[in-house]
Write a structure and sequence with these properties.
With 91 residues, this protein is of the alpha+beta class. The protein is built from 2 helices and 5 strands, in the order βαββαββ.
Length: 91
């Protein structure tokens, strides 16, 4: 089990990126959360099987149809006691 913190940059707010992330992560069996940030990025923590986490990162490069992802900054983070995948409030 691994966990990664993602900072998604580009046109990723107002294009259903968070909803798409929740759906995609749940389909991959991942735990974690996603939220908009005040600086215009989207932040997510994804946790689970290493292959599923890597698949999620690859999918996030495109996101939903209306998104335009410039880059994703990925950082290792601590595996926590997270269950399910949720959308959080902007921070």
């Amino acid at each position: 089990m691994i966990a990664r913190r993602l900072e998604i940059n580009g046109r990723v707010q107002g294009v259903f990126y968070r909803d798409w992330t929740v759906k995609s992560a749940r389909e991959l069996g991942l735990a974690g959360w996603v939220r908009n940030r005040l600086d215009g990025t989207v932040e997510a923590v994804v946790q689970g099987d290493a292959d599923a986490v890597e698949r999620m990162i690859a999918l996030a490069q495109n996101g939903p149809p209306a998104a335009n992802v410039d880059r994703i900054d990925v950082a290792e983070t601590t595996v926590g006691a997270i269950t399910g995948f949720e959308k959080r409030s902007t921070r």
